[in-house]
């Protein structure tokens, strides 16, 4: 009996020295083993266990998510982002993976020429054909970078990107699109109107149609439209369109400028060709 006990102890020691995987026969068992090692901060063994689970089933979402978390703890952030991106490609509503991806992905995107590429794509067509892989790896992280800027052009491009991402990647991007449009509206200046009046008109028309009935948007829209009309009427931005009577006739706007109670001669200008 004593000899049997000695043999059992020897077997246990051998199993532990081999990494503790001898009894892990299924992907679920490898996954549970990985979680145990992760909780013990033994990240190297946790990494091995999660990878063995994924060798058995590459679509094992939970194992891949925790593999990403293990890589994060090991300081391999770019590799961790790749794993969370794979989770989101197969499970777009995986909230925890989205939050992790959201925290780190913008750090690894290079804007530069990529900004102009997407600006040209979205100017030519509202929903360009892109792969979901490119969406998660480049377009959506770029949009998050642009969301942190304070200029109309960047924020409007971010809104286009988020709209595409909302429709093709994950519904989690919906509130980001609205935030980008609001930021673009708040940062719209006469310089933007002067540089690209067609783009500004398209933007104002879009926001008015989509959000014009919402109370929180109405004051922002009023101020933006006032600045736009001020530029079109040749008035100082601070004056806006105050003291101006506007009448719409099809695509033409007739203006009457009222100063000191006197109505000057009406003139017209076109909002569209």
Describe this structure in words.
The protein has 273 residues and is α+β, with helices and mostly antiparallel strands. The protein has a domain of 91 residues: Serine Threonine Protein Phosphatase 5, Tetratricopeptide repeat, CATH 1.25.40.10. It has 13 helices and four strands. Strands 1, 2, 3 and 4 form a four-stranded antiparallel β-sheet that branches. A hairpin with a 2-residue loop joins strand 1 and strand 2. Helix 8 runs antiparallel to helix 9. The longest helix has 18 residues. It is elongated. The N terminus and C terminus are likely disordered.
The whole-angstrom Rg is: 29 Å
Fold-level CATH name of the domain at 18-108:
Serine Threonine Protein Phosphatase 5, Tetratricopeptide repeat
Identify low-pLDDT runs.
1-17, 246-251, 265-273
Residue fraction in strands = 5-15%
CATH-wise, what's the superfamily of the domain at 18-108? Tetratricopeptide repeat domain
- Please identify, by name, the CATH architecture of the domain at 18-108: Alpha Horseshoe
- Overall average residue pLDDT: 81
Percent helix: 55-70%
**CATH class designation of the domain at 18-108:** Mainly Alpha
Total number of beta strands: 4
How does the major sheet shape up?
4 strands, antiparallel
Distance between the termini: 99 Å
What's the number of helices? Answer: 13
SSE sequence, one letter per element: HHHHHHHHHHHHHEEEE
Overall spatial form: elongated
> Helices and strands: which structural class?
alpha+beta
């Amino acid at each position: 009996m004593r000899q049997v006990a000695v043999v059992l102890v020897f077997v246990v020691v051998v199993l532990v020295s081999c990494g503790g995987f001898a009894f892990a026969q299924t992907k679920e068992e490898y996954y549970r083993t990985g979680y145990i090692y992760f909780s013990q901060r033994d990240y190297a063994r946790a990494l091995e266990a999660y990878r063995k689970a994924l060798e058995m089933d590459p679509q094992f979402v939970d194992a891949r998510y925790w593999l990403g978390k293990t890589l994060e703890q090991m300081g391999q952030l770019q590799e961790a982002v790749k794993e969370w991106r794979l989770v989101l490609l197969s499970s777009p509503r995986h909230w925890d993976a989205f939050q992790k991806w959201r925290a780190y992905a913008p750090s690894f995107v290079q804007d530069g020429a990529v900004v102009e590429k997407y600006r040209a794509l979205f100017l030519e067509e509202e929903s360009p054909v892109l792969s979901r892989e490119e969406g998660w790896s480049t377009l959506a992280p770029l949009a998050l970078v642009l969301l942190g800027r304070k200029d109309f052009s960047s924020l409007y491009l971010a809104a286009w990107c988020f709209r595409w991402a909302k429709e093709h990647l994950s519904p989690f991007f919906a509130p980001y699109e609205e935030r980008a449009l609001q930021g673009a509206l708040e940062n719209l200046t006469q310089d933007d109107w002067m540089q690209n009046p067609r783009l500004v008109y398209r933007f104002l028309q879009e926001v008015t149609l989509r959000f014009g009935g919402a109370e929180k948007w109405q004051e922002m829209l009023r101020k933006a439209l006032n600045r736009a009309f001020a530029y079109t009427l040749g008035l100082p931005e601070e004056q806006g369109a105050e003291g101006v009577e506007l009448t719409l006739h099809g695509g033409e706007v007739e203006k009457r400028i009222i100063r000191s109670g006197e109505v000057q001669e009406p003139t017209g200008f076109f909002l569209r060709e």
